[in-house]
Write a structure and sequence with these properties.
It is globular and about 55 Å long. The longest helix is centred in the last third of the chain and has 15 residues, at 170-184. The protein has 188 residues and is an alpha+beta fold. It has two domains: 11-45; 47-187, Nucleoside Triphosphate Pyrophosphohydrolase (Alpha-Beta Complex). The chain has helices at 89-101, 155-163, 170-184, and strands at residues 11-20, 24-32, 38-46, 49-55, 60-68, 73-77, 80-82, 103-114, 125-137, 149-154. Its EC number is 3.6.-.-.
Length: 188
């Protein structure tokens, strides 16, 4: 079978930290690849993260609107955030959901984990399915440098926004697509 993990890894011959930041570092590497090449690559070492598809019992999805520097504009996406050291994905999802949106997860389930661009970053985002009660919301606790607006949106509208590109973040597209393909149909 072709789609099987390989035990072979590249051998790091040299590594130099070119940049250290709050969320990521840039490492310049010389690597001996498993297929015999020697290559120079820049690696963005990124903290692990979680993204939550938070659903109400009536299939309302919690959507965030937030300024994002990568597009220099507001983005529509699922709630997401970095995992703290020592947290597992469930703990991080519970904390991030409450801090960013004020909603507490009644139940949490990991759907899958995704990588946004394996050619340049080791970022791993755990996609979580969260069940929430829209009537139970507390105060938000944003990080000092963030401001997020959250709203419940019907799932059909969210799927349409993914289809037409209004929602384009990799973790949001991945979580919504995974839910639609593997979970939603199994419960109908």
């Amino acid at each position: 079978m072709f789609i099987q993990p390989s035990p072979q890894k590249g051998r790091i011959l040299a590594a130099t930290k070119a940049y250290h930041g709050y969320i990521f570092d840039v490492i310049q590497q010389t690597i001996a690849t498993p297929d015999g090449l020697t290559v120079e690559r820049d690696l963005i070492k990124h903290a692990p993260a979680v993204a939550m598809l938070a659903l109400t019992p009536t299939d309302q999805v919690l959507i965030n609107r937030e300024y994002r520097v990568g597009i220099n504009a507001e983005s529509f996406a699922l709630p997401a955030g970095l995992m703290n050291p020592g947290e597992d994905p469930v703990q991080a999802a519970r904390r991030e959901l409450e801090e960013e949106t004020g909603y507490a997860a009644l139940a949490l389930q990991e759907m899958c984990a995704i990588r946004s661009s394996e050619g340049m970053t080791d970022e791993l985002v755990h996609l979580m399915l969260a069940r929430i009660d829209p009537a139970k919301r507390t105060a938000t606790h944003f990080d000092q440098d963030e401001f997020v607006t959250s709203q419940l949106v019907p799932l059909a509208e969210v799927v349409a926004a993914v289809k037409d590109g209004r929602i384009a973040s990799a973790q949001s597209v991945g979580a919504i697509s995974y839910y639609e393909a593997f979970i939603k149909g199994a419960h109908q």
